Amino acid sequence: MISYFLLGVLLFEMVFGYRPFEHVHDNFDKMSHIAKLTQNPVIPSTDNPHLQDILQQCLQINPARRPNAYELLQHPFFNF
């Protein structure tokens, strides 16, 4: 199954030019850091509310709250 969290990380990096967890340098430490998150990552403000929303949805720490493929494809961000 595709990890939509990773999709959120990739989209975040493409838009903002850096990774949301780039302060953690070692890959193992980064995975541990993400696994221990108790709050969703902070997403910088953007002029595009659809982008803000899709990032917030994909970067949910609770996998059950992330959108599935159908929901992503129906999102206004991808339907311009």
Mean pLDDT: 88
Unreliable spans are none
What is the terminal separation in angstroms?
Answer: 26 Å
Strand percentage lies at under 5%
Report on the biggest sheet.
none
Q: What is the helix tally?
A: 4
Helix content: 40-55%
**What is the string of helix and strand elements?**
HHHH
Structural class: mainly alpha
Note down, in words, how this protein is organized:
It is built from four helices and no strands. The protein has helices spanning 4-16, 27-35, 49-58, 69-74.
Summarize the structure.
The chain is 48% helix and 0% strand. It is built from four helices and no strands.
Topology (elements, then pairings):
Blueprint: H1 4-16, H2 27-35, H3 49-58, H4 69-74
Helix pairs in contact: 1-3
Name a few traits of the molecule.
80 residues, mainly alpha, 4 helices
